[in-house]
Specification:
Keywords: Signal. InterPro entries: Bact_solute-bd_prot1, SBP, TAT_signal. This protein has 429 residues and is of the alpha/beta class. It contains 22 helices and eleven strands. Helix 11 packs across helix 21.
Length: 429
């Protein structure tokens, strides 16, 4: 299913960047610097450290770790969406960092299978950390061969955020729970010059919402089959696509949604230009207080005959994990110190309290300063959870699915063409 981690395979994949293009992204560090051979220097590669949610807490935690371990230096490498590409390039040179903090998605799905990272199950158990992890997270990070790809860390709830004040202004009396109610609410919002549902139809946010809506008529097993194989021809999948097209052509989504990104989506909701968005925990935590206090969280409205009895949300435990590289195995004592520290209840609590992060680890701490994050955690049986397809979509299909998503959000595109675009995304997988 996955191609070997070879120089030709990696550099031809994804963005197609050549090594000379990728190397400067290592925050000013060369690959030689990244692979510090000093056994007293731990090299960590992360997406945290700039504007990513949780970055201030992470950097503060690193400072504390350094103070508690004065004989151990920590080198922090930072990348954004290109982290996987940069890591793979460094691994080809055998100069990869020791620990990688990234989610389970697209390229990373193949890492353990091709030896780019190692099975960490033995370390988790040997270090006595298994009981710190939620069972759902362990299951999500374990591959079909029983290997634990990484130490689970960040999770996320992914409900729908509704600006109650904007709905009231438009004369919408209640949070919509059915497709008909959502269409009626959208018409009233548009009459007041308010965009209904804002969504990044040109990136991963739109891809996730599209998958959520399609699953309206799918059981978990049926959804797993569809997103593993690219077969959207079942009755439930076709009904889900029809439902999406009906909502889209009724004006439910913001104008030109097919060109919007996650940043533009967040801006529209946070500035109250749009009334509704699909918002994962990190987005909920960034909603301004003056907007948050009249925002409610719930699920995506259902259609008649749905496979679910409650409005749906997404939830995942694979947002960020700690992967150990072959180089990290050579410094396993340092890696153990670092992971024990990051798994410590005090460190976990700081991420929850200071950054509003949902965690894949057990904790009694509540996001008191992030009420919408806490509200999403309390939804419980009031919503139905659908499948986040990330761990089932073949890596080669991940980016083509984004293109298919933009096509799908283009008004006037028929259900037949939406299905064809989705299935075409899998042809290279």
């Amino acid at each position: 299913m996955h191609s070997p981690l070879t120089r030709r395979g990696i550099l031809a994949a994804g963005s197609g960047l050549a090594a000379a293009t990728v190397l400067p992204a290592l925050s000013g560090c060369s690959l030689v610097a990244a692979a510090d051979s000093d056994p007293d220097t731990l090299v960590v590669h992360s997406q945290l450290g700039t504007t990513a949610p949780g970055s201030p807490t992470y950097l503060a935690s690193l400072d504390r770790f350094r103070k508690e371990n004065p004989g151990l230096k920590v080198k922090n490498l930072i990348n954004g969406d290109d982290l996987a590409q940069v890591y793979e390039t460094s691994r080809l040179a055998r100069k990869e960092p020791d620990v990688v903090m990234v989610n389970l998605y697209d390229k990373t799905l193949a890492w353990t299978d091709v030896g780019a990272t190692v099975d960490v199950k033995g370390y988790l158990d040997g270090w006595g950390l298994r009981e710190r992890v939620r069972p759902e997270a362990l299951s999500a990070w374990t591959d079909a061969k029983g290997r634990l790809r990484a130490f689970p860390y960040f999770a996320t709830n992914w409900p729908i955020a509704y600006n109650r004040a904007l709905l009231d202004r438009a004369g919408v009396d209640a949070i919509p729970t059915t497709g008909d109610e959502l269409i009626a609410a959208s018409r009233k919002l548009r009459a007041k010059g308010i965009a209904p549902v804002t969504v990044g139809g040109n990136d991963w946010t739109g891809q996730k919402l599209l998958a959520q809506i399609i699953q309206t008529f799918l059981t978990e097993e049926e959804a797993r089959h569809a997103y593993s194989t690219g077969d959207f021809g079942s009755r439930g999948a076709r009904e889900g696509i029809d439902y999406f097209v009906t909502l889209r052509d009724a004006g439910v989504f913001a104008d030109k949604a097919q060109g919007l990104t996650s940043d533009l989506m967040t801006t529209q909701f946070n500035t109250q230009s749009a009334a509704i968005e699909s918002a994962m925990s990190s987005a909920l935590a960034k909603i301004p207080e003056e907007v948050a206090r009249h925002t409610e969280v719930g699920g995506w409205p259902l259609a008649d005959g749905a496979a679910h009895d409650k409005p749906t949300i997404l939830r995942t435990y694979t947002l960020i994990g700690f992967w150990i590289s072959p180089n990290g195995v050579k410094k396993i004592d340092a890696v153990e110190k670092f992971l024990r520290f990051m798994y410590h209840p005090d460190t976990v609590s700081r991420f929850i309290k200071e950054s509003g992060r949902d965690m894949a680890l057990r904790s009694d701490t509540v996001s008191t300063d992030f009420p919408l994050v806490a509200a999403a955690q309390r939804l419980g049986s009031g919503v139905s959870q659908v499948l986040l397809p990330d761990v089932y979509v073949p890596p080669a299909a991940a980016q083509p699915l984004i293109t298919a998503t933009s096509t799908s959000f283009t008004r006037g595109t028929s259900a037949t063409k939406v299905r064809a675009a989705l299935e075409t995304a899998y042809r290279s997988a």
